[in-house]
């Protein structure tokens, strides 16, 4: 897959909201699937001087800036040459996946002369937001020899909404059947040829294909809007906004006394319980293997984990001006006022007072404002990788992220300043 290699100019991206936003827009556009997001992050890390590590071989010893890729996940770290005896890990966790429509194997359907794409719903998407949008298809094709090929198309599909003339009650409440109403049109029957088209893009023969992991994406480009250009609209802000913020914060980071870890997991939107998800062994594997290269035994590694912390960075909710009663009556986060610190009494977010103090110090050090987020008691909130990481590894964890509107829509929005402010705070957290 051709990948744009961005110049490493993190100093500008941590001080100029527009430069950061332009780079975020480019990253989102280059990352229509979690596999692309991980591949682009890997290319950027290599361009910044990070060494790629092969999981199937021994980890290198000594200090360095390194990373590995597992499917749609990427983990990078900066290890000092001399690690202090009381050092720990400072982890920033994000995720690379977003709600979408996943292409089924044998995906072509025919209906009344149309050729359609058979899809499954991936994650908790706002179904109606995917109607009447030109969609591309992206992801990976794996050949029978086990080789992975990343592919993406241009605009090839659309889910047309039924005209109001044929459903006069539609504005009284749109209800979509996930099977019958969400299959995109692709061509006129019997024309189809999706797999041959993708194989041509990948340079492989259709008969060599074993299976694929392919998803739809909205082809519309990210854009700045608003009377004073104060808003940013894009697909997949949940959670490429956090992944990009952590990536830009780490690209030219030279390290501190602790070991800085950037873990961008896959499959958060469907529960994280995979080999590349936060509930799987990926982060634990990396932390234990790094500790082993330092000569730590199990007891020493557990002691390191007890000295460690995690910032779980994922998008949160801004107060919605059309639905203010769906939010807490007092705590009402707004765009361009800084990233959120997310709290929940039922531990849907992992933040407690100890983790919160770590985040507030990072924000103070970076000169970044931050806002609390709590849910209306009648509106239970979602969750993140934060509680999963805290449970699996015992790390002191705080949940944070930029505020957005239209979360889990095909196109979300945020303030133009908040992505850069998040990156600055994450950089300060790593610097300690």
Q: Features of this protein?
A:
alpha/beta; three-stranded antiparallel beta sheet; 432 residues; globular
Give structural notes.
The chain is 26% helix and 26% strand. The protein has helices at 10-13, 17-29, 34-47, 194-202, 237-250, 282-293, 298-306, 353-366, 385-393, 418-431; strands at residues 51-52, 64-70, 73-79, 89-95, 100-111, 114-122, 135-143, 148-152, 185-188, 209-218, 223-225, 231-234, 259-265, 309-313, 316-317, 340-342, 371-373, 396-401, 403-404, 412-415. The strands form five sheets. The chain has a nine-stranded mixed β-sheet with strand order 1-2-3-13-4-14-18-16-17, sandwiched between helices. Strand 7 and strand 8 form a beta hairpin. The radius of gyration is 22 Å and the shape is globular. The model has no long low-confidence stretch (mean pLDDT 94).
Compile the SSE list and pairings.
Layout lengths: L9 H4 L3 H13 L4 H14 L3 E2 L11 E7 L2 E7 L9 E7 L4 E12 L2 E9 L12 E9 L4 E5 L32 E4 L5 H9 L6 E10 L4 E3 L5 E4 L2 H14 L8 E7 L16 H12 L4 H9 L2 E5 L2 E2 L22 E3 L10 H14 L4 E3 L11 H9 L2 E6 L1 E2 L7 E4 L2 H14 L1
Parallel strand pairs: 1-2, 4-13, 4-14, 14-18, 15-19, 16-17
Antiparallel strand pairs: 2-3, 3-13, 5-6, 6-9, 7-8, 7-10, 11-12, 12-20, 16-18
Helix pairs in contact: 2-10, 5-10, 6-7, 8-10
Through-space gap between termini? 37 Å
Largest sheet: 9 strands, mixed
> What integer value in Å does the Rg equal?
22 Å
Unreliable residue runs:
none
- Using DSSP, what is the number of strands? 20
The quaternary state of the protein chains shown equals single chain
**Residues in β-strands, percent:** 25-35%
Element order: H for helix, E for strand: HHHEEEEEEEEEHEEEHEHHEEEHEHEEEH
Strand arrangement within the widest β-sheet reads 1-2-3-13-4-14-18-16-17
Percent of residues in helices comes to: 25-40%
The structure class reads alpha/beta
Principal-axis shape equals globular
Number of helices, where a helix is a run of at least 4 consecutive DSSP H or I residues: 10
User: What is the average of the pLDDT values?
Assistant: 94
